[in-house]
Amino acid sequence: MELRIEHLSKTYANGTQALRDVTLTIPTGMFGLLGPNGAGKSSLMRTIATLQEADSGSIQLGDLDVLQNKDAVRRVLGYLPQEFGVYPKISAEELLDHFAVLKGISDSKQRRDIVSGLLHRTNLYEVRKKNLGGYSGGMKQRFGIAQALLGNPRLIIVDEPTAGLDPAERNRFHNLLAEIGENIIVILSTHIVGDVSDLCRNMAIINKGQVLLTGDPLVVMQELRGQVWRREIDKEQLPALQQEQQVISTRLFAGRTIVHVVAGSQPGPEYDGVEPTLEDVYFARIKQAEMVNAVAVES
Amino acid sequence: MFLQIFKFELWYRLRRPATYIYFGILLVLSLLMALVTGGFFESLTAVVGSGKVHLNSPFTINGLTSALTLVPGILLVSAMFGPAVLRDFDSQMHPLLFTTPISKWGYLGGRFFGTLVITVLMMGGIGLGLLIGALFPGIPADRLGEFHLSYYLVPYLTFVLPNVLLTGAIFFALATLTRQALSTYVGSIVFLVLYFVAQAQLSDLDNQTVASLLDPMGSGAMALLTKYWTPVEKNARLILPTGLLGLNRLLWLLVGLLLFAFCYLRFRFEQGATGSAKRSRPQTAPGVVVAPTAPVLLPPVEQHFGFAQYFRQYLRLTWLGLRDVLRSPYFIAIVAAGLAFLLAAALQIGKIFDTTTYPVTAQVIEILSGSFSLFVLAIVTFYAGELVWKERDARLNQMHDALPIPNWVPFASKLTALLLVPVVLLLIVMVFGIGTQLVSGYTHLEIGLYLRWLFGLKLVDYWLVVVLAVVVHVVVNNKYLGHFVMVLYYVFTIFAGQMGLEHNLLLFGADSGIRYSDMNGFGHFVGPYLWFKLYWGLLAVALAIVANLLWVRGSETDWDTRRELAARRFTGPARAALALALLGFVAVGSWIFYNTNVLNTYRGSKARQQLTVKYEQQYGRYRRTPQPRIVAVDVQVDLFPERQEARVQGQYWLRNKTAAALDTVILNLPEDVRIRKMQLGAGGATAVVADSVLGFYVQRLPRPLAPGDSLALTFDLYYDSPGFEQQTQRTGIVANGTFVNNGTLPHIGYNADAEIGEESARKKFGLKPKLRMARLEDTAARANTYIASDADWVRFAATVSTVPDQLALAPGYLQKEWTANGRRYFRYTMDAPILDFYSFQSARYAERHAKWRDVDITIYYQPGHEYNLDRMVRGVQDALAYYTKNFGPYQHRQVRIVEFPGYSAFAQSFPNTIPFSENIGFIAKVDTANPKDVDYPYYVTAHEVAHQWWAHQVIGAAAQGGTLLSETLSQYSALMVMKQKYGPERMRKFLKYELDTYLRGRSTERVAEQPLYRVENQQYIHYRKGSVVMYALADYLGEDKVNQRFRLT
């Protein structure tokens, strides 16, 4: 089964164009959706999660029309929104049980088992009786994950799931996702490149509502091999450099500024070639798209 | 520091739209109030209060200002002061703010006083609204006096400023210390409730001074200060904060400042809420160091979808929703406040002269459910918002919306949960009611009545409001706007009638009214009531379906998307259900309309008034047409209690008592009568006018009636009871407890009493000014008694028939009783002429017999109402003894007291027959050990028996002073009987009451207060002032001396 998104566009009432002709094919397994804040990731995910309408285009899950047949989609859906709250006065166990009922798990024994299983898996079992109001951000996030895994989801959408998790929690979460993501579709949106490179066999980079790139992270990194160059500069040099070269990223290291540039050949002796990371791909693509847009505006 | 924060607060508030919205709300509401008070709305010529008190008088401005400061003022004050500090917590600004070097005084003081200044300015909307109202074109000139700015400013300083400071301090402290927005909402409701409870306690005469000091808003003190003011004083005197009022204002101003000081002392610049012992800190998970646990395999689960599963989910969500409400501390707080209110109400059950009644179930239900209904509405409205917004408030909505459940499951479950809330609340009322009864040792518990009343009738009302509130919240999709719309709806229901929307088919939830009587149960009120409720219920169903279609699911909430989604959801079943509901709504509506407007004549109050005007304009020329007078009456009244119908046939003898021959006879009849026969003499009279709408008939006799000659009027009338009315009013002939008087029979001559009396209305319709009553010196007016203008003394005989299990009564002595055609007949005749004033009653009575010398005393009563029969009998006996000894012999051989349903609350004296409402006296609980209790069953009985002398032996003319002869003297007579039994000390309480009622009564006089001897049927004069004056007279001159003057023989 695969999820096929074709020519999906959406403009909000306030004029924001959230999705522009998005076409994606998402096979089973983990799929990373990478993009800066405000790129349209959440809009796309909400649309797949039946929470939002599209102006045009279609989404097919197997032979299900997602936009028309929301109920059927919801039956196989697990969704973790980017931002969510909980009822503060009830415990994780109760709320999870509540969700289990609403997911159609009517057998109470099965419900008990799945709830306790998920609480174990998300490492919340010890605190299952505690009111959710007392949970830390990470615990709440884990609860959200547990909730998304209830039932037999065949499509899981997790929007920025690792935000607020400490490194160890994030690790656990990745393991969990990787495990369940073997046979079903898991769409993971993030702006943390590492999440995608660690987990996903497929990915898309999206910015300003447009898909900039799709593919296997390894392959896309491969494609950029030999084009990424690194240089240490002083902060003052940066504006001038940005005029000369296609700077894709800058970061500070030990008080010096390190820039990555993309170029077909070594731009100069002070540049060292580096093995491209997914981050380089990501920044390169976004820069590229911005330049195209800028040119389009100028002309 | 203080100044900066203070200035920032002003600046910030002046830029908030809310400030101006609240100002606007106050302005519009006070404008409306002013217009209503000023008699602006056409359909409402009856003005609020006294027509003599000007709209721009200090009294009116004061009253309206202080009322509006209370509601909605308090709610707005809480909306202003709550966020003064809370907004920092809501916006999570507080950690940033609290780490800056601001001083506590600067922060709290600046915020508080800044808000205070803005709120006081905002309250200016009230004064401005009232001023605009007074200047509005269309306010009659006689409703206005001179304009003085001080009239508007003084109440501002005496009421608005201290009250805003006090209530502001309360809400500010609540919000600051609990850091919960809800606490201020609930605080404002609880405050209002406690306030009204305190007000209810003020009604007892003895603790008024204390109560008026304790009234935090000062209106009690104001009421005490002004309660005896005459209209002239009200128009001219400023209500200055002196005396008790001044003390009260000072006291509460101080309390306000102290509250602020308390808040200041308790406040800490901390993250968590101050004051609450338990602080919830985010706990860290025990497994921070993540030990690699072996992955637990998730067990397989089966998911079920389909109606059965959805229904289970619906039940579960309903239960959770209900539990949420019931467990919420605010629910518990409001209910607790409501219970306090109930307790206060329970203590007041049926108070007359500060004497309570037995807690009979009907009274208990009426009072408790009445005083609790405000709470039910508040709870229902509030939690409609909470439940509809539950997921979104918890920010769980996105997860929830993506769950595989159909839209109707969350919607219907929330609706159902909220429908169950009033069930719980009514259960509380019921338990409380039964508790009240048991505590006072009353064990005749009518559980069935509780169930029928609360859950059969009352609940439907609340359910309609629940559906409306949920629908509004879903459709409006903004919690605060939703609440605002609901408040608008409540305001609208109050003003709808005045804006001309009177028909119950037009006002959501309205019905034809329901009244209970121990004698007649819910009687004929139930059917029409249920039809109206069915009508609105069907609309509610339709609205609920629409709301379900518009239910917000997903992240897009703009109107276009919602409409589009709704259109997509509007499929087969929804269409069918909506069509069915609307069809039913229209069908039931048509059926109601057929009943109220086709079978019955419907007239709004404006149309009714115009009809009265028409009567005078068209037939006023007959005012002085000489008429023969009724000298003998022989009627047969066949009552059909179950059908509420009656046939009235019989004969009048009319005699020409004038000096000239008469050729015209004018007959007046009610509009709804069916005339089968109405014949003068042997017939042959020509109809000059036959106006069935105005009930006016003029007939020209074939031969003039010579002076001294008599003529028979034979009539056969039928009173139908077709369908039901818009407002159930036919309470005369009922299944058990019929009570009609001779208004159902023809009257002779133009009826001047039917004309409009209200001065301003007469002016509006271009009618000539009319005296309220003929002057005392007007000798022509003495031609008529004030009882009847078409008869003097009449010979009277009547046959009354009814169903076999009822007893029918009319004045006179029972001559014969027989059964025919399955009906029971009674023949009564009077052995001497009586006033043309008689009644017919029929019910399933029990009887209590007694004697005073050779006079038979009988009380016909509803079984179960035995409580005060002995007192009544004693009352009759003592009264007969006293009156016979002091005034002269009793003209009849019998006294009958006949109970009738509490659709009216009075007792009335007909010749040898005294109809007595079940609501006064029969269920009074007189504690003779308590010197403060007034034995009013005894007293009312004595008063009515006195009328056998004062009215039925001596009757006043239809002129000034007429009612002195009957009412004042009866009052005096009863007082003497009471004094004899209870001693002069016990009379104090009673006389104090009478004086108080008199003084308050005259302060609402609309025309002119007359001296007692010129009383113009003014109750506060002929009863209340009369009592005090006559008692004093007996005190000064001696009882015997006074009585000698009243001796009739």
TrEMBL record, chain A:
The keyword Ligase does not apply. Keywords: ATP-binding, Nucleotide-binding, Transport. Residues 3-233 form the ABC transporter domain. The keyword ATP-binding applies. It holds the Pfam family ABC_tran. It comes from the Bacteria. One of its GO terms (molecular function) is ATP hydrolysis activity. SUPFAM superfamilies: P-loop containing nucleoside triphosphate hydrolases (SSF52540). SMART domains: AAA (SM00382). PROSITE patterns: ABC_TRANSPORTER_1, ABC_TRANSPORTER_2. Belongs to the ABC transporter superfamily. This is Multidrug ABC transporter ATP-binding protein. It comes from Hymenobacter amundsenii.
